[in-house]
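Agenda item 2: 2-phosphoglycolic acid complex prediction
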Amino acid sequence: MTVTRTAIIAGNWKMNYGPAQAARFATEILPGLQELLSGYAQVTSILCPPAISLPAVRTALDTTPTTQIELGAQNIYYEEKGAYTGEIAASMVRELCSSVILGHSERRTLFHETDDLVNRKTLTALAHGLQPIVCVGETLAEYEIGREVITKQIQTSLANLTPEQARNIVIAYEPVWAIGTGRAATAEGAGAVTGLIRQLYGEMYGTDTAATLRILYGGSVTSTNIGEFIDHPEIDGALVGGASIKPDFVEIVRKTIETMQQS
Ligand code: PGA
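Presented output:
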């Protein structure tokens, strides 16, 4: 973390917890999150349940008096409305959420999302006032041959933003091999790539904008390793998968705050 930026701890619930379970889990973790966050303004938490559970979690959040816990979706489509069976428009998500995860590696791999598609979705999200959390990340083989994949992902997924839009982006760097494997990257390794991402973003939108960009690390983050990532000057929080659907999520937020207070 760098003190001039605020941290984000986002929870990507993936395809876990339908409305009833989501409401129960939200009710379980919200008091702890609220207590931690209300005492420390430098961290925001974003809960991203499955689309069908967004109303249930919205209801739970509306009864929790804090502005530092937000709701995010896991995907949108870029069209405004119409014959797109199974898809959800940005305007619909915006009724309940302030953020949306885009271009997650599971969507890129399993649902064939390209950088161009992620870019269209990013522009649509921004046009509707949603903060995109744009995910990038490479496989181990791609990592070992250099930085081409990350460079193309950033340059294409985040192309054509206005200067104002460029300031409303969050990026999540998630090495594919670290997602859901229990094998997190090292803070040093992740920090080197997030540093590169900031540099690339600076080339696209100016160094001042890049200096305010929040870049999260994602991939097997737990309450045990979050401190190392938060300690790195180039890493501004985490996108948490598996640990975000457990009470450990509250501990991750606690460790984040403790680490920031110590630095
Ligand atoms: P993980 O997932 O924390 O379970 O590795 C992270 C993600 O996919 O966003």
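Discussion summary: The CA atoms of residues 101 and 133 lie 5 Å apart.
Owner for follow-up: CH.
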